[in-house]
Amino acid sequence: MQSRNILAGPYLDRAAHLRKNAQRFATALADERSRAVPVWNSCNLIIVGEAPRAALLDLSVIPEQRRNSSDLTLLGRFDDIDIFTYEIEALEPPVLQTGTRFEDLRLVASQLPAEEAGLLGYARGMVAWRNRHRFCGSCGFPTIASRAGHVLVCTNPACSHEQFPRIDPAIIVLVSDGERALLGRQAAWPAGRYSTIAGFVEPGESLEDAVAREVLEETGITVDQIEYQSSQPWPFPSSLMLGFSARALTTRIERQDDELEDAQWFSRQDLRAGRPLVPPNVSISFRLIEQWFDAGGGPKLREILNASASR
Length: 311
Ligand SMILES: [Zn+2]
Hints:
This protein is of the alpha+beta class and 311 residues long. The chain has seven helices and 16 strands. A hairpin with a 5-residue loop joins β2 and β3. The longest helix has 19 residues, at 114-132. It is globular and about 60 Å long. It binds zinc ion.
């Protein structure tokens, strides 16, 4: 089993304690080894080919009037090189380097080196946050970036509210009755695909509360033995997925909301027979299903899927 989820790190040194240091930012900006990972239309720049890579651009590609501390975010040191990110606002994707293309990270993450996928996810998450907080949530004045792009400060002197990057915690859970897994599907998904139960944590809830509530609302099943498994940053735009397993105390499925189009119990035999289609292996939902499936012994889920994909 892989040791960590795709997009999870650590893949760079964030050097968070140095963000206040304006000299550090200026030095990184002046260093010709520094690189930038741009984001356009929520997409990351990829060197396309057999083995895709993240495009790390020379800072000279950035228009000179944008090479400053209010336009750029300094992400940290990646492979001993300072990496910046910035958003490109344009109707059409700009051509910045031959052989590259702006791509949705969700579609290419599993093909990229893990460190680069994580770096691009971080860039995308930071750009999305900055993009959505151009104005102060308290008084409505424009905000301006501070601390290497990691704080947005209100420009109204009477307010000066500081906005920090936001993430939205969401639980995702593999519920089992021992032999079977409880999986659901949303109407918008490809036909036949089912996945683990998931939902956002609400104010005033613990993670365990959220697991029990979401499973009950979406399937009518009561659970206990809620145990943390692993987590995955999911910056599309700002989620943190917290993966759990749980034991079903009941088996009768009765959906209480319309979040899911359907929910069913599936046995390992069902999955071996190719039913249902499971989520892409880049996701923590796949990892949770895989973990449950493989605990049953016999051929591993990945081997079965790879074999059927190559037939
Ligand atoms: Zn304000």
